[in-house]
Amino acid sequence: AAAADENDVVVIGGGPGGYVAAIKAAQMGLKTTCIEKRGTLGGTCLNVGCIPSKALLHSSHMYHEAKHAFPSHGVKFSQLEIDLPAMMAQKDKAVSGLTRGIEGLFKKNKVNYVKGFGKFVSPSEVSVDTLEGGNTIVKGKNIIIATGSDVKSLPGITIDEEKIVSSTGALSLSEVPKKLVVIGAGYIGLEMGSVWGRLGSEVTVVEFAPDIVPSMDGEVRKQFQRMLEKQKMKFMLKTKVVGIDASGDVVKLTVEPAAGGEQSTLEADVVLVSAGRIPYTAGLGLDTIGVQTDKVGRIPVDKHFMTNVSGVYAIGDVVPGPMLAHKAEEDGVACVEFIAGKEGHVDYDLVPGVVYTHPEVASVGKTEEQVKALGVAYQVGKFPFMANSRAKAIDDAEGLVKILAEKETDKILGVHIMAPNAGELIHEAVLALQYGASSEDIARTCHAHPTMSEAVKEAAMATYDKPIHM
Ligand code: FAD
């Protein structure tokens, strides 16, 4: 057992990786302390990421629906307006309720919570400058680094969080910008672009790469981009921003083709820089104890999440792998299970990805491009929501389900869904892949009618046979 002041597990960082690891450790009977500098728990995800963005996506979607969809459902308003402060207050309430909820879970599970900035003084000691002032040393037999990630800036661009904002600033603009330029067509840029576009901004997305969301299945991506364009989002692909001037009332951006060529100018009231995120380990004292990082600053770990220093572990956004909250949580649980001498397991091939636009795009497993590259013979089953009765009933029928299955065995290799609630629909596919199911296993599973999920069943039928409703 640990000495009175010594923990079995110390977690630095209270994000989805860190707080989940801390709760799991305490539940397993380990004496646990979690150190968080922010003053609130939940990390990037709860405070300035997943949760506030989904709150604003929902609020802005409601406005957009009220304006564009309600009349055709026979619901009419004489007046419709946006109360932005109220919208922001609802988002803030969701965030504070959830972050306080985690504090409650810490108490319930007896996780000791230290508010302050932690830095290593030895592989088993963390010095914490506490938020209330002063310093304390927290000792642990095992220390988990869960310090997450931070916004990546671009050379020559200074984020002031007013006119040139990161995702954090884009979550709390005080007015709807007339023109919003988004640099980077990843999921964060597209989600935040959708929020402000629905509220009235003219949105232009500038992307260096030839495609938006490069990890997406190509066919689904094409439809997705068309859908966003229908919503008036403009794309400048294969384009780089070479200069930015924020000295005047409007921001002036100079852009040129990625391959070089003629320059042009764009104007914006607000520019969102969403060109990726970088691991955050500033001031953590990794050098002091000799923890290695790779060339982009991530901390490499072994199969048990241990760094090159014995007893020091790392999880979540700070280690190589997808920077997603649910992946960080899986890391956290598995890492603690290893520390407790049990088996932990995360299947990194089956981490679902979701873009929470409208419709949403969700995927798990391999894209068609990846399957092709593997050289396996495969079948594709597709089913459009236009032929799904529930989607038609609610008049929200854009999108499709696409299932890739191995030709010889019918084993499912990848599933891609574009639908209003694709982020929920994807999980039967995640489970199917987890169990190594065949497409026929899904097709022969009874799905309730009328549901959007029936489109998953019909796409599964289409891989090896014919769907009924197409
Ligand atoms: P973080 O959440 O970054 O938490 C790390 C914590 O450690 C921070 O609170 C930080 O203050 C603290 N910390 C750092 N250094 C120290 C120190 N030295 N001492 C004490 N504390 C320290 N992911 C999804 O899965 N779904 C989404 O919908 C989604 N939407 C997103 C939207 C936006 C706008 C952004 C920015 C991100 C989004 N993400 C989403 C990504 C998600 O937020 C991250 O993958 C997730 O938060 C990573 O968890 P983590 O615990 O590794 O790190």
From TrEMBL:
Q: Which GO terms describe its molecular function?
A: dihydrolipoyl dehydrogenase (NADH) activity; flavin adenine dinucleotide binding
GO aspect biological process, one term: 2-oxoglutarate metabolic process
Q: Which Pfam families match?
A: Pyr_redox_2, Pyr_redox_dim
Miscellaneous comment as given in the Swiss-Prot or TrEMBL entry: The active site is a redox-active disulfide bond.
Q: Which family is this protein grouped under?
A: Belongs to the class-I pyridine nucleotide-disulfide oxidoreductase family.
The UniProt record lists the keyword NADP: no
Provide the taxonomic classification: Eukaryota, Viridiplantae, Streptophyta, Embryophyta, Tracheophyta
Top enzyme class = oxidoreductase
Protein name according to UniProt:
Dihydrolipoyl dehydrogenase
**Might you give the EC number(s) for this enzyme?**
1.8.1.4
Q: Which residues bind NAD(+)?
A: 184-191, 207, 276
Identify the PROSITE patterns for this entry.
PYRIDINE_REDOX_1
